[in-house]
Amino acid sequence: MQLESDDTIEIAFEPSFSVGERVIARSMIRNDGTFSGKNFGEVIVNRGDIGYVTRIDTFLQRFYVYAVLFVEKDHHVGMRARELCTLDHLNEVVLAIIRDHIAGPWPQQR
Q1: Rounded CA gap, 69 and 20, in Å?
Q2: Is-contact 19 53, C-beta < 8 A?
Q3: CA-to-CA dists, residue 102 to 12, 24, 51, 61, 109, angstroms
Q4: Entry pTM
Q5: What is the predicted pLDDT for the residue at 98?
Q6: For residue 64, what are the β-bridge partners?
Q7: What is the mean pLDDT of each run of 10 residues along the chain (110 residues)?
Q8: Could you give the CA distance from residue 39 to residue 36 in angstroms, rounded to a whole number?
Q9: So what's the pLDDT on residue 102?
Q10: Residue 105 falls inside a structural domain
């Protein structure tokens, strides 16, 4: 597994996530001044918040920025891959391990 650094030119590789993919925030995200309606430094995404990738953009011709809709908060937030983890491409064993640590039991998939 390659560690991501700011020296990496991400756009030389395929995006880590796809539009429509269900993701979970790996860390708390505070407003850096680009999220209108919230104060600078105010928490806009908490670790464990679940959302869906709605768009993939680039920044500085180097990085992918994933527009993620966090449905419960109705927020669209731009995030980097290192701040997200997929929930759509994990096996059931991994999902079972993280399920109880994030938000309690999840509904069974049909």
Answers
A1: 10
A2: yes
A3: 33, 9, 13, 34, 17
A4: 0.74
A5: 67
A6: 58
A7: 63 88 91 85 89 92 92 89 86 70 48
A8: 8
A9: 57
A10: no
One DSSP character per residue, the chain reads -PPP-TTS-GGGS--SS-TT-EEEESS-EE--S-STTS-TT-EEE-TT-EEEEEEEEEETTTEEEEEEEETTTTEEEEE-GGGEEESSS--HHHHHHHHHHHSSPPPPP-
The gap from C-alpha 48 to its chain's centroid, in whole angstroms, comes to: 9
> Which of 17, 21, 28, 15 is closest to 73 using CA atoms?
28
CATH code where residue 85 lies? 2.30.30.140
Tokens 């590789």 identify what position? Answer: 13
Q: Does residue 95 contact residue 108 with C-beta atoms inside 8 Å?
A: no
Identify whether 108 is part of a domain. Answer: no
pLDDT of residue 106: 44
Residue 55 lies in a domain: yes
- Laid out side by side, the sheet with 50-59 consists of 75-79, 63-70, 50-59, 22-25, 84-86
